[in-house]
Write a structure and sequence with these properties.
The chain is α+β, with helices and mostly antiparallel strands. The protein folds into 2 domains: 69 residues, 434 Repressor (Amino-terminal Domain) (Orthogonal Bundle), CATH 1.10.260.40; 103 residues, Sandwich (Jelly Rolls). 30% of the residues lie in helices and 27% in strands. The protein contains 6 helices and 9 strands; from the N terminus they run H-H-H-H-H-E-E-E-E-E-E-E-E-E-H. A hairpin with a 6-residue loop joins strand 2 and strand 3. The chain is elongated and about 60 Å long.
Length: 196
């Protein structure tokens, strides 16, 4: 990297360290996973060693991210406006998440579908937190009321759908890679049923 890339250089080094710390790994653990020496990794994180493309690729892979994500620069889209889905009575605020995870904030006004045929099943795992109101989570033939500040976690191979109960609710939904793919295949990015 050239001198003019100093800010990006510093950002990449901070990201490498932050991702390592977030995983709870020592310098030695990440160095072993990336097949570099501990001293080399320490010098990379501290800015005492030049960043080499081949090492960045290896470190990105070891940190379960991509080179693009490791070197991406800050974007101007810090504030997002809700996307309106009037047909389903939803507002969605996309939230950037960890590589491999999708985090979506949703406002729901419709109950989940009564028709079990409209429930989804796909590989993966989902989590949701109710920010306000009450959500109704349908898993197979069971119904679960999820109140404000309560959370639910479930494998998405169970047929599932979610909606509002007794008025609007807002949820924060988190999807792992497989669950995200399952929702993208059917053209939605949400948590289920008629309330994606």
């Amino acid at each position: 990297m050239t001198q003019s890339d100093g800010e990006l250089d510093s950002l990449v080094r901070k990201r490498i360290r932050a991702l390592r710390v977030a995983q709870g790994w020592s310098l030695e653990e990440l160095a072993t996973r990336a097949n570099v020496s501990q001293s080399t990794l320490s010098r990379i994180e501290n800015g005492q060693r030049r960043l080499a493309l081949d090492q960045l690729v290896t470190l990105a892979r070891a940190l379960d991210t991509t080179l693009d994500q490791l070197v991406e620069t800050a974007t101007d889209d810090v504030v997002t406006s809700p996307m309106i889905d009037a047909a389903h009575g939803l507002m969605r605020w996309p939230v950037k998440g960890d590589p491999g995870m999708t985090v979506v904030r949703q406002r729901m006004t419709q109950p989940p579908p009564d028709n079990p045929a409209r429930m989804r099943a796909h590989p993966g795992r989902e989590w949701l937190v109710v920010l306000s109101g009450t959500a109704m989570l349908m898993l197979g033939h069971k119904r679960f009321r999820v109140e404000t500040n309560q959370a639910a976690e479930f494998p998405t191979m169970l047929p599932h759908a979610i909606g509002a109960e007794g008025g609007p609710c807002e949820i924060l939904g988190i999807f792992d890679r497989d669950a995200r793919r399952g929702h993208q295949r059917d053209g939605t990015t949400g948590t289920g049923g008629s309330a994606p």
